[in-house]
Write a structure and sequence with these properties.
Shape: extended
Number of helices: 14
Radius of gyration: 33 Å
Structural class: alpha/beta
Strand content: 5-15%
Strand order of the largest sheet: 2-1-3-4
Largest sheet: 4 strands, parallel
Order of helices and strands: EHEHEHHEHEEHHHEEHEEEEHHHHHEE
Distance between the termini: 109 Å
Amino acid sequence: MGEEPSVARKVAIYTRISRDDEGDGLGVARQRQDCERLADLRGLSVAKIYEDNDVSAYKRNVRRPEFELMLSDLTSGLIDGVVSYDLDRLARQPKDLERLIEVFETRKRLTFVTVTNDIDLSSADGRTMARVMVAFANKSSHDTARRIKRKHLELALNGKSNGGPSPYGWKKDDPNKVDPEAARHIREAQKEILSGVRIGTIRKRWQEEGIGRPREGTKRMAHHHVELMVTSPRLCGYRTYHGEILLNDSGEPVIGEWDTINTPEEWEAVCAAVAERKQANPAAGRPVARKYLLSGIARCGLCHNKIRGQINRLWKPGSKASKYSYQCSVVNGGCGKVGRVGEPIENLIIDLVLEEQRRRAAEDGSPTSAEWPREAEFKAVSDDIKALTVAANNREITMSSLLQLLPDLERRRDELKLERGRFQREIKRAESVSEGIKSREELRELPIERQQEIILHSLSAVVIHPAGRGKRIFNPDLIEPVWRD
């Protein structure tokens, strides 16, 4: 009888490259070609190719999906070995190597070959050599990371960018030059935030209009991405490092070499508005109504409970019935005895508010930029911090003395900076609340949050009194606006 022909062992090819800036996959393609050539020379049958492109094997918090799948297939017996360009393509962390070795110890006669050199993971000597090689590869990656980190810190201290894609607001081909169109969108969004519009509303509109350079195929822009675009310290020229504003030896913010979109005061005002909304402090604001203009603003004339808008479920297009109404609800703690058709009340309040704001604008004349009354105090505290830092650098005082004096001053400076941001926010908010709004129709086209902000700029509440029995004809005398002082 003749000998049975030997069956080629089924192996997998694993390729990986840490960075693929161009996104064309040429690096892993070259590795795959060399591995295929080696498998052919060794008489191995390639059953599958696992590819982790643009994925680090050194960073501990990075998961390599194809590497994990390859280990699973090795363990289950779907493949009988691995071909890779080099051992460091598979593992740069000892823990990953140990997981691979465990599979080779559990399943005997597995194949492991590399283009650069062969290591027998089934033998004790081979495993020892592999551990040594991965340890050196790990150290090499650590040294590279340390040098890159130091380089990035040096670039940051000099006000330079680290490279990479230009942030939204700056030109794609020059991260130091402002993109006028993108900058306009950012400023408009900031103005809306100061006028009470939620970031979620802005995010939705940007998504629909393709603003903010959303990634191709993205179905939904992340809320925190939009928030960062309108609150990034880069907007006013501040250089950050690991998410914090970088300070120079004098304790002052490092200024970047790029063109700015905001002044520091404008940026602080926007950040203060966003921070205030996040705090969800009842003293700082009110719950935001998203559908009806006077929800949370209107109050019952009998029990004084807040009244919210309610849709009329029987309403149909073309019918004479009201689409929605304002009802005092027993469910929300009210008396349930007061209710009004929604649109006539809203139209009355809008007309009254716009008229009042036009009158006030005519009396006040052109607005003047107000100065924060505690600017001198803020400057004095900042100068003290700078003086202490310089003295410590010149060894005129000890580091121990500096660290005892600095925390209180820094805390005071941060409190004053937050107060200045709130002050600037109120100034900008007052300027932008009803800017350019001349008619009821123009106001209705705005986001509901900004409509409410315009109303609340003049009114603290709207009291709806009961109409009594009989035929209910809208009577404006029963709608009582409560004006702010």
